[in-house]
């Protein structure tokens, strides 16, 4: 039906019914479209997204306009007269969504400061003989200056597989910031508490060049403010290659029959498995545990790291298991052999330390217990959070003496060593984790490294009087 016909029909209806009152009633009840501005809600950055929904019966709209207004001038974001100016989608019989990005190129006239985003829409009512409109607006603040970063610490040395600390300032202080190593981000934390007289802008960030990343992976500081403005900054650093050892491990039937059944019975990932008891079945399950379960356990470590304390909970060098023998080093590349055939390859991401059976296992530094239970390949496992993304992990225990939430001091007993999980004998598998990824523990055990890489920088940042 053309609009003219509709109007004529409506007039006819009015004439026939003589119901001018009824028409008036219908008009007075009719409301304009329902508009919601989804984005932006508070801040507009150098690049921003505008998004709004408009609801009207059958999505019939006579007009739809969106602008960002500043100092009395309205700059268009969208108009129904030029629908290509934004992406417009009908999302239901009555609902339309419009969205677009806008930036300094599309809106060069925008300046830092207050602005208003305004959306107006009109729809036909009573067969189009009249219309109803709605206007919705939201006050925003335009921020065009990217965050600023300045490095405060000097001499950064990164061993492949190891850790390092950088001290820097970021402004505004509400910007998220840290160190980016390839695609991995290491957030920075307020330095107050760790650095004397630290201002609001001073940050500390541990970062690592992981063993599975290329030695030349880019390393830089990053910052993102709440308006979405980003910045990055380089800082001087040197990288040192490390040679990772290779080893071969024979997997015997006796080993499989001792190690696999307890893991199968305790790991939820394997709850549906009913081993048939053949050597082949044990080997298949072992390969699943050594590969897939190992990957899943590592993913869980990444999740666990998100709950790290934002302050430094530790002091001094981390302590190694007393009187222990190093059986296996960090990032050893292991080839697994079964009846002389190569069946698997994995990288060992901790230190294996052997002492006596059921040796007391003690916290390597002060922190808070964040996990204390059976944990896949690690068997009975305790993880202690030392704050700012740094955690220590103790695996294969025969018993556990602490619970999640317990604050522990360096040297406090966490449990007894054992051979639960994927362990060839009674030993402690010890790992240092940075934001859930294993890093070489040797550095954290070394008082000289702690002094040079951490304490020196904290002291210097304090006397710099930020
Ligand atoms: Zn180990």
Characterization of the model:
It is a single chain. By secondary structure, the chain is an alpha+beta fold. The protein has helices spanning 3-17, 20-29, 253-266, 279-305, 441-445, 447-463; strands at residues 34-39, 43-44, 47-55, 63-70, 73-79, 87-90, 95-103, 113-125, 130-142, 148-151, 157-159, 163-171, 176-181, 184-187, 189-190, 202-208, 219-224, 230-233, 238-240, 246-250, 325-328, 332-338, 341-348, 351-354, 360-362, 367-374, 380-387, 390-397, 399-400, 407-408, 413-416, 428-434, 437-439. The protein has 3 domains: 32-142, Immunoglobulin-like (Sandwich), CATH 2.60.40; 148-242 and 453-463, Immunoglobulin-like, CATH 2.60.40; 246-438, Glucose Permease (Domain IIA) (Distorted Sandwich). It has 6 helices and 33 strands. Strands 21, 24, 26, 27, 28, 30, 32 and 33 form an 8-stranded antiparallel sheet that branches. It has a 5-stranded mixed sheet with strand order 2-9-8-4-5, with no helix packed on it. It has a 4-stranded antiparallel sheet with strand order 1-3-7-6, with no helix packed on it. Helix 3 (253-266) crosses helix 4 (279-305). The longest helix has 27 residues, at 279-305. The radius of gyration is 32 Å and the shape is elongated. The site of zinc ion has 5 residues, from loops.
Beta-strand content bin: 35-45%
What is the count of DSSP helices, taking H or I runs of 4+ residues?
6
Full CATH superfamily name of the largest domain: Glucose Permease (Domain IIA)
CATH architecture of the largest domain: Distorted Sandwich
Question: Which molecules other than protein and nucleic acid are bound?
Answer: zinc ion
CATH class of the largest domain: Mainly Beta
- Overall mean pLDDT stands at 91
Number of domains: 3
Please compute the radius of gyration using only Cα atoms: 32 Å
What is the CA-CA span between the terminal residues? 73 Å
Q: Helical proportion?
A: 10-25%
Total number of beta strands: 33
């Amino acid at each position: 039906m053309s609009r003219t016909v509709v109007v004529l029909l409506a007039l006819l209806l009015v004439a026939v019914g003589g119901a001018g009152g009824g028409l008036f009633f219908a008009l007075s009840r009719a409301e304009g479209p329902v508009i919601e501005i989804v984005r932006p809600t508070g801040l507009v950055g150098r690049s921003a997204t505008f998004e709004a929904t408009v609801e009207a019966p059958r999505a019939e709209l006579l007009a739809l306009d969106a602008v960002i207004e500043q100092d009395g001038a309205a700059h268009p974001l969208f108009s129904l007269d030029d629908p290509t100016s934004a992406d417009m989608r009908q999302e239901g019989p009555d609902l339309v969504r419009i969205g677009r990005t806008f930036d300094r190129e599309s809106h060069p006239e925008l300046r830092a400061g207050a602005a208003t985003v305004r959306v107006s829409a009109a729809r036909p009512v009573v067969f189009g003989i009249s219309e109803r409109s709605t206007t919705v607006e939201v006050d925003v603040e335009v921020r065009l200056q990217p965050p600023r970063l300045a490095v405060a610490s000097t001499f950064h040395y990164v061993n492949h597989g190891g850790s390092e600390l950088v001290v820097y300032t970021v402004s505004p202080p509400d910007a998220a910031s840290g160190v980016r190593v390839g695609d991995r981000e290491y957030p920075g934390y307020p330095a107050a508490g760790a650095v004397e007289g630290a201002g609001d802008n001073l940050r500390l960030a541990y970062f690592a060049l992981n063993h599975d990343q290329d030695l030349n992976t880019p390393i830089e500081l990053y910052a993102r403010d709440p308006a979405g403005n980003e910045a990055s900054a380089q800082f001087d650093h040197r990288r040192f290659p490390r040679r990772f050892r290779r080893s071969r491990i024979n997997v015997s039937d006796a080993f499989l029959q001792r190690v696999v059944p307890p893991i199968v019975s305790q790991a939820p990932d394997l709850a549906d498995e009913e081993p048939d008891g053949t050597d082949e079945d044990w080997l298949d399950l072992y390969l699943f545990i050594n590969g897939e379960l190992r990957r899943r356990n590592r993913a869980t470590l990444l999740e666990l790291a998100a709950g790290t304390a934002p302050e430094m909970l530790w002091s001094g060098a981390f302590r190694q298991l007393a009187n222990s023998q190093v059986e296996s080093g960090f990032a050893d590349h292991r080839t697994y052999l079964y009846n002389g055939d190569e069946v698997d390859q994995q990288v060992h991401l901790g230190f294996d330390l052997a002492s006596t059976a059921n040796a007391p296992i003690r916290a390597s530094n002060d922190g808070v217990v964040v996990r204390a239970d059976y944990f896949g390949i690690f068997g009975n496992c305790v993880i202690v959070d030392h704050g700012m993304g740094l955690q220590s992990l103790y695996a294969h225990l025969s018993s556990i003496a602490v619970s999640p939430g317990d604050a522990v001091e360096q040297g406090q007993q966490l449990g007894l060593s054992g051979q639960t999980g994927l362990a060839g004998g009674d030993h402690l598998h010890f790992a240092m984790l940075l934001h859930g990824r294993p890093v070489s523990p040797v550095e954290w055990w070394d008082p000289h490294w702690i002094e040079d890489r951490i304490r020196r920088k904290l002291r210097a940042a304090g006397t710099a009087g930020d």
